[in-house]
Amino acid sequence: MKSLQSVNVSGFEVLPLVEGGKGVSVSNGNSAGAWAAAGAVGTFSGTNADSYDHNGKPIPQVYQGKNRRARYEELIAYAIQGGIAQAQRAHDVSGGNGPVHMNVLWEAGGTQRILHGILEGARGLVHGITCGAGMPYGVAEIAAQYGVHYYPIVSSGRAFRALWKRSFNNYTDLLGGVVYEDPWLAGGHNGLSNSEDPTKPQDPLPRVAELRSVMRGFGLERTPIIMAGGVWYLRDWEDWIDNAELGPIAFQMGTRPILTKESPVSEAWKQRLLSLREGDVFLNKFSPTGFYSSAINNNFIGELRERSERQVVFSREPMGEHTEELSVGARGRIFYLSPADKVRADQWIAQGFSIPMRTPDSTLIFVSPGKGEEIRAHQGECMGCLSQCRFSNWAQNDAGTTGKPADPRSYCIQKTLQSIAHSDDVDNNLMFSGHNAYLFATDPFFKDGFIPTVAQMVERLKTGD
Asked: Is the pLDDT score of 76 beyond 90?
């Protein structure tokens, strides 16, 4: 294994190892500070981060607003308060001896206001902003106002070219690096384009080489590229190190750092990771963002899959093959189905999935009465955690809506991520994960359930293992 050469990240000479940011309290100030103290790059999440009471316990994010707009303002206030608290914790844990980055999602609700609030309230404590989940054109300008570096997350050279030409070329000095996130292997939300097949992963090497070629065209031959998604053993990436075609490279890991002592997730979550098998991570498009995402295939994902499988196309008037009437609800609303779909619908209703719910695609899904009530309640309690949400139809515009019907095939991402971050329920909540998580069960480092400190993990990574 080649020795790792230091890279300059946000003004610090560090190992080319980066903690991946994981939203809603899964990477926090404790873990980020430990990574920075170990000579690497720490990253806490600025998306709905925890703040603390005088006893050091997380403050539950309870919403009192009577409407979505009021709850949206509460969400922004919680996020700013929490981000400042995590930045301070990271600084305290690291002793100021390494770079601390904050990860935000550009398409999360209120991101621009939240960035301003945290960077103003935590001046000097955050050294870099990592930003993806969309096209973060505005992150460079915000970073420049506070003198911090920015690290856009992209999945292609084409995406970076668009960002550069529209915005980044005006803020070259603070572009600390570019994160290339593999859209097939990374955990959380994935940057698959409409032209890419989610079932056919592509080799990242030529894609990253193309990104470097684009960057060289803009004079960025020495700006680090941070490879994210699918990174486990660095020995598997040895041909990337000191590769003249790729230039300076660092490696970001999001899933592997969850299994450390400083990681804030529950013991149940850590034990579940140790038991995963290959194929247990599921690339899906259930997210209310509309993006593909990768998550562990548990009861939560299974119910979403089954919900979408109980789905038929309808029309409001008889036309074509839609000749069979389905009467719905106390008012007896009539939908017209094909004969085959009418048989299926009757079977689902007989099985207890007696509540049809309309989708924006002129289809009906069938759910149990309890699930139907839960979906409607969650849609009604929306707090605007996304810039646009297909589940609730919220949008952070003047109208407060996407203009489309709410989609019951999705879910409230804020509720489930808050739940899994603050409970032991890893079966009935969304558990984001990278696709290599099954390696926890076979990696000798984690033999007999061993959970290392961040410092121990960094030392292990340096060996190639």
From this structure: yes
